[in-house]
Amino acid sequence: MGSLKFRVLLDSEKSEEIFRDIQINEDDNFESLYHAILKSFSFEGNQLASFYISNDEWDKGHEIALTDMRYDDEEDISIMKESTLNDFMETSDQKVILVHDFMRMWIFLIELIDRRQETVAAPLALLAVGLAPPEDSKMMQEDMEFGEDFDDDEFSEEDDDFEDGYDDEDLANYEEY
């Protein structure tokens, strides 16, 4: 038994890199890694989150969720506290994506950078580069103003009807009391 060293890069809008190196025992679970990552970035961790096993192109693969929210038994999703790190670390530079807080979409790009013989008493943050932004600094999707990403040229005046099939002429005889 040994430990794993991960580089955890915060995908942010800042021009500077913000990352942490974390060492954790290979027989620890993903929930321990999740809490170590959040602690190293000073995030609270009171939101839903999922890890995704990835490839060299950072494509999302198998999901490892914080809580079991499967709709049926056939969905192929693992749960963090039931999933051991070593069971998913297939390559020497295994890549993993962590999405924290699905409303704010904090994304962490994680790469296995070293396997070590020694174990640690608890997950360690070995290196911290860059200042992490406050967890609530990223706008939630519902906080975005309507029309922020809206393109007026996409629609013509003919498309101004309601989605229910009624238009202004249908409401012409309507009298308000």
Task: Explain what you see.
With 177 residues, the chain is mostly beta strands. The chain has a single domain (3-138), classed as Structural Genomics Hypothetical 15.5 Kd Protein In mrcA-pckA Intergenic Region, Chain A. Helix content is 8%, strand content 31%. The protein contains two helices and eight strands; from the N terminus they run E-E-H-E-E-E-H-E-E-E. An eight-stranded mixed sheet has the order 5-4-3-6-7-1-2-8, with helices on one face. A hairpin with a 7-residue loop joins strand 1 and strand 2. The protein starts with a strand and ends in a 48-residue tail after the last strand.
What's the CATH topology label?
Answer: Structural Genomics Hypothetical 15.5 Kd Protein In mrcA-pckA Intergenic Region, Chain A
Percent range of helical residues: under 10%
Find the CATH superfamily.
MM3350-like
Multimeric status of the protein: single chain
Mean pLDDT: 83
Low-confidence stretches: none
* Beta-strand residue percentage: 25-35%
Structural class: mainly beta
Overall CATH class: Alpha Beta
Strand order of the largest sheet: 5-4-3-6-7-1-2-8
In total, the number of domains comes to 1
**How many individual helices?**
2
